[in-house]
């Protein structure tokens, strides 16, 4: 392969004549390819040896060809990308990557990457998104589809939730099956050697989640396609899957975290609590113990608000009394959790004996929010899935009708 013999310095010297590919009379230079390989290596934490560069060059060149087609079609349709658009996208990358303002340009400079490299990657992405936005009117989503999605999620509510990242490599043509699988295996090898999953997702994934490093967030069982869900069910946090073939292409999944669900927990409960605590030392005489417990009992019978308990605490000089806001019942200590489990707003617990004393707990406020996604979120997710299918179909059409001359 020609690329194996092209050094960075040589590529710069050939910037006017070194052409890696031509897409509808528009060239992609060898320098463009070399700079993008450097960007992929730096952003994904891939040690880029000459052999690794040679192995990844065809995949990265194909991405550059796709971007050229996307930009050409978007411009033909009248969609423009402004400098302000690119600056906003750079800011978003910095935020998602934990970089300070201006940190992306500094990152490029530190890695010897030309500043235009990131702009040349961002420009077709924005243009393509604008074009796809115009295709939303072709998508119709019925209330029945949303209802079915909600019911499937509700039926799996008590099952584990998984925090998942994805890399998606589409197979748009059966003839590309072997090549795409090899690309997927190459991604796996890079990950095994320490590459950053999110960085690879941003560079190679064809899913809309790529902009967020492939992060899908927390998903209930049943929110993913069957073969993907089956793979996730067999994984442990930190695991990365082998390439998973679906009808759309190959997925690589990473399980970040798993949470066990409560079969009856259809809501997220948050409590504002006031604790009235009376200290009782181990050697306190019984009559004094009875007196202090009597104070708590009287407070239980007379207090009509958390402020009433706070007033008692002031009179007692109880420094360990106070209010806690927005706490989940699951985060409470066992005795307190059990004591407030069935209390509504304004309810007060029985006396709770603990090490070092006794206490009462009143529920000052109680909020319950459904943990199920709302209908609009489900509609947007279905729309995005449909839009991705339309986007791949459109890109496949562009490739089929384009003149593409790969010269290396």
UniProtKB/TrEMBL annotation:
<keyword id="KW-0697">Rotamase</keyword>
<dbReference type="GO" id="GO:0016853">
    <property type="term" value="F:isomerase activity"/>
</dbReference>
<dbReference type="InterPro" id="IPR015391">
    <property type="entry name" value="SurA_N"/>
</dbReference>
<dbReference type="InterPro" id="IPR050280">
    <property type="entry name" value="OMP_Chaperone_SurA"/>
</dbReference>
<dbReference type="Pfam" id="PF00639">
    <property type="entry name" value="Rotamase"/>
</dbReference>
<keyword id="KW-0413">Isomerase</keyword>
<keyword id="KW-0143">Chaperone</keyword>
<dbReference type="Pfam" id="PF09312">
    <property type="entry name" value="SurA_N"/>
</dbReference>
<dbReference type="InterPro" id="IPR023058">
    <property type="entry name" value="PPIase_PpiC_CS"/>
</dbReference>
<dbReference type="InterPro" id="IPR027304">
    <property type="entry name" value="Trigger_fact/SurA_dom_sf"/>
</dbReference>
<dbReference type="InterPro" id="IPR000297">
    <property type="entry name" value="PPIase_PpiC"/>
</dbReference>
<dbReference type="InterPro" id="IPR046357">
    <property type="entry name" value="PPIase_dom_sf"/>
</dbReference>
<protein>
    <recommendedName>
        <fullName>Parvulin-like PPIase</fullName>
    </recommendedName>
</protein>
<feature type="domain" description="PpiC">
    <location>
        <begin position="159"/>
        <end position="257"/>
    </location>
</feature>
<keyword id="KW-0732">Signal</keyword>
<keyword id="KW-0574">Periplasm</keyword>
